[in-house]
Predict the structure.
Amino acid sequence: MSDASVVRDNQRYWEALAPARTGAPVESLRSGADVFTDHERAAIGDVRGRRVLQLACSVGDEALTFAQLGAEVTAVDIAPSHLATGRAKAEALGLVVDFQEQNMMALSEDLTGFDLIFISWGGLCWTPDVNAWAHLAAQRLNPGGSLIISEHHPLWEVLTVAGEDRLSISADYFVPDRAGYADPLKAPEITRTLGVPDLPHKSFVWSIGNVISAVLTAGLTIQSFQEFPEADMYPNLGTNADRIPATYLLTATR
Ligand SMILES: C[S@@+](CC[C@H](N)C(=O)[O-])C[C@H]1O[C@@H](n2cnc3c(N)ncnc32)[C@H](O)[C@@H]1O
């Protein structure tokens, strides 16, 4: 299966999820609801006047927050309906975000010269080739610009809570292709109310080694790599959920 057909299938899949995926209400964004974690906020820093590109932006809550923080924001996604939701929110909030329908693996030439490229929470797993993805992102950064990846931890992706205080392994950490969702918690959150659409789609679990190698091979300098627990992501694991990683945050510069 070619990368282009993976992206085409995934576009249809995400469009099917669009009607039920609206993100944060406009009112909460207006009143300054913070869609970033404290760690993301610290990594992002002061973005006033900076050119920011968000990849796989979905309905745009993070992109809109970057705009609220004073950045000049471009945000891309393959799902037109998600982008339409983002544009409607931008209008309601009086914010400017350049939402564009683009495949993050084949960005148009004019999308370049960014001070920050950001991807988060269930974005990176849609790239069929993490090396090509990192190479493209690195090319589109200004010298000194930063890449921030804030993602589900690949270990979380392969672990399933099998009972009170018990984990089982539901996928192979070392094999990126994810055939379906053995654990419904690993499917996009919206599928828990809507169900997984009966449409072909394909995502990939990139190991920590895959991600770090891809970023280094792309010529970037890793500035920080942090792992975090998130009890909600391991329901029923009790306090043990605080002892294993659920997310990670990588920052790198060109
Ligand atoms: C879980 S959501 C985005 C996560 C985002 N951080 C959020 O919290 O809304 C995943 C998004 O990736 C998008 N996507 C999947 N493959 C893509 C690709 N090749 N290029 C750009 N966007 C893609 C989907 O359309 C979907 O909106």
Notes: Residues 7, 10, 14, 56, 58, 62, 76-79, 82, 103-105, 120-123, 126, 188 surround S-adenosylmethionine (CB under 6 Å).
